[in-house]
Write a structure and sequence with these properties.
Elements: H1 24-27, H2 32-49, H3 52-65, H4 70-82, H5 86-103, H6 110-122, H7 126-136, H8 142-162, H9 168-185, H10 210-228, H11 232-241, H12 253-280, H13 292-325, H14 329-342, H15 355-371, H16 385-392, H17 401-413, H18 420-437, H19 442-458, H20 462-474, H21 483-488, H22 497-500, H23 504-521, H24 524-541, H25 544-584
Helix pairs in contact: 2-3, 2-4, 3-4, 4-5, 4-6, 5-6, 6-7, 6-8, 7-8, 10-11, 11-12, 13-14, 13-15, 14-15, 15-23, 16-25, 18-19, 19-20, 19-23, 20-23, 23-24, 24-25
């Protein structure tokens, strides 16, 4: 049997050009009806094998040839529902119903009506699906009406679950949010021809505590695990990869756009699918086991978490002691910042009943390790007062030209002019300000102010360093938006944060940080005030080495003040002599 080749397959193809990529059976000159049936059969085949994108592709080709094919529309609607694209499936079903009504005013297809009700149900339009079943129920025969009754019972039960007393708190929270959005949208804005900055509503930034962030993250995992079982980790990975810079590289314009769209579409489909399942079976309606067995499991889970938390805290303390013995202060500082900022803040008092004691112990360990770093160097030479103070405070007095040359060469090789030191300071300042908003204990606030002051000192911002060091002692709080105003309006005689909580360790450390800034600026009088205050608090610690260190600093400071007065008196005497000589002339 010889097939007749289709001339349309090669129409418009010239000599020396590539032929279209067609299958063997597509070259044969089939009629449009035959092609439509074959494409539909291929769509059914790929639907049965699970290749849903290929199934949609061939059903689309069938509908391009015959747009009035209701069977192809119904099958494509079924495939889209399996792809979690229920709203698009509803449109296909409505189109098929309109085609039937145009052909026959009283036409009816029970398969299309059932498919429409299923698509409405999976689109979370429970009321519309129930109305569609009630309107078309009398048109079904008795045997086919059993499927309708089953769907009606299922949807009615879902509506009862969604409107039960268990879901009332969640529904009221959603209603309150919707009412707030409507009130904001209805606010009157006066239109003006010129630019009116005041008419623009400022979006309030929402600050969530670390505990609230952890709770929401946990609820998100539970939600995905409830409906997707073992795939919940893949959903979390898909959510994070959408904003991953390694996936969407700016230099690769076409591929990055395609991958970004692919990731967004995939995540949107998954979220639609989970919302559909949540509408069918709300999480709030899951009845927990009542009685003694439930209480037993709950208590065992709580004790297991408490025991593991207790072991982790002992391990943290052992690690801190080990770092102190090996004198690794920088590593100790980073470890404490990570533990206290990312682990302890998300533990409640129920899981960690000894949280206050642990926080005090960790910060006291770190403070004592930093105090032990203030020692009189054994190789200290007899120099001038300011140089001796800089050596005592371990402030570099000479520039290492080799390191400077290496750093300049490194900057020349960098493609951008971003200063890594300033970028690091921005991250540190944002972290300290965020932690300060939710710091509960005085010792933690004093520690954060001290670290923030040290960060300002590292970038040579001496005025802010002195003010923050004073805040560590005085205990004045600041807000993120009014930070600069609060710094300038701080009261130096406020209620002492460190002293009020008897955190004399961090009070002394903050005073010494301010002394470093005054030493670099050459403000000897203010330096004497801070050293005197630090000496009083060091006496309360009963630390002989620290008192000796501060006492030597005070003596050096006194010598520098005397030297400064002598220089000022000698300068004034020389000026008087010059004025007298000029008057005699």
């Amino acid at each position: 049997f010889v097939f007749e080749m289709s001339n349309e397959a090669f129409a418009g193809v010239g000599v020396g050009t590539l032929q279209p990529d067609l299958k063997v059976w597509e070259i044969v000159g089939w009629t449009d009806a035959q092609k439509s049936n074959m494409y539909t059969d291929w769509g059914i085949y790929f639907q049965n094998t699970g290749n849903l994108p290929a199934s949609v592709k061939y059903l689309d080709k069938a509908l391009e040839i015959n747009p009035n094919d209701t069977d192809a529309l119904r099958r494509r609607s079924n495939v889209k529902r399996r792809q979690s694209r229920a709203p698009a499936a509803v449109l296909d079903c409505i189109t098929a119903k309109d085609i039937i009504k145009r052909a026959h005013p009283f036409g009816f297809d029970h398969k299309i009506n059932l498919e429409l009700s299923d698509a409405l149900y999976e689109s979370n339009r429970l009321e519309d699906g129930l109305c569609s079943l009630h309107l078309n129920r009398r048109l079904f025969s008795y045997t086919k009406g059993q499927a309708v009754n089953h769907r009606m019972i299922n949807i009615t039960q879902n509506i009862k679950d969604a409107l039960s007393d268990v879901t009332a708190p969640a529904v009221y929270r959603v209603i309150d949010k919707m009412m707030n959005v409507q009130e904001v949208a209805k606010r009157h804005k006066k239109l003006k021809s010129e630019c009116d900055v005041m008419s623009i509503l400022e979006a309030e930034e929402e600050f969530l505590s670390p505990l609230e962030k952890s709770r929401r993250k946990r609820h998100y995992k539970i939600y995905n695990h409830r409906y997707l079982d073992k795939l919940w980790m893949d959903v979390g990975f898909l959510k994070e990869i959408r904003e991953n810079s390694n996936l969407c590289i700016k230099e690769f314009v076409e591929s990055s756009t395609h991958l970004k769209t692919l990731a967004d579409d995939g995540y949107r489909i998954v979220r639609t699918f989970t919302k559909m399942l949540h509408t069918r079976s709300p999480m709030y309606c899951r009845n927990s086991i009542k009685g003694e067995l439930h209480q037993k499991y709950q208590q065992e889970n709580l004790f297991r978490i408490q025991y593991q938390t207790r072991r982790n805290m002992f391990k943290i303390l052992r690690t801190i002691r080990s770092l102190i013995r090996t004198n690794k202060l920088q590593k100790l500082k980073n470890f404490v910042d990570d533990v206290m900022g990312n682990y302890v803040t998300i533990k409640t008092n129920r899981i960690m009943p000894w949280k206050f004691e642990f926080v005090n112990e960790v910060y006291n360990y770190l403070g004592l390790a930093r105090i032990n770093d203030y020692k009189i160097p054994s190789d200290m030479k007899i120099l001038t007062g300011r140089q001796r103070l800089m050596i005592l405070f371990k402030i570099p007095t000479e520039l290492d030209f080799n390191r400077k040359g290496q750093f300049e060469n490194l900057l020349n090789k960098r493609p951008s002019t971003v200063d890594p030191k300033s970028e690091k300071f921005k991250k540190q300042s944002a972290r300290y300000e965020y932690r300060m908003r939710f710091a509960k204990y005085p010792i933690e606030r004093s520690y954060l102010y001290h670290e923030y002051a040290q960060a300002h000192l590292d970038i040579n911002s001496f005025d802010a360093c002195c003010l923050l060091a004073r805040k560590s002692i005085d205990g004045k709080h600041f807000e993120h938006s009014d930070f600069a105003v609060d710094l300038m309006s701080s009261n130096l005689n406020g209620a002492a944060e460190a002293v009020r909580g008897k955190n004399y360790i961090w009070a002394v450390l903050s005073a010494l940080v301010a002394c470093k800034a005054h030493t670099i600026l050459g403000k000897v009088e203010k330096q004497k005030e801070m050293l005197t205050e630090a000496f009083k608090m060091a006496k309360k610690l009963k630390s002989i080495d620290l008192c000796l260190f501060i006492d030597i600093c005070l003596k050096v400071n006194t010598e520098e003040i005397e030297l400064k007065r002598q220089m000022m008196s000698s300068d004034s005497s020389i000026k008087r002599k010059m004025r007298r000589s000029s008057s005699f002339e």
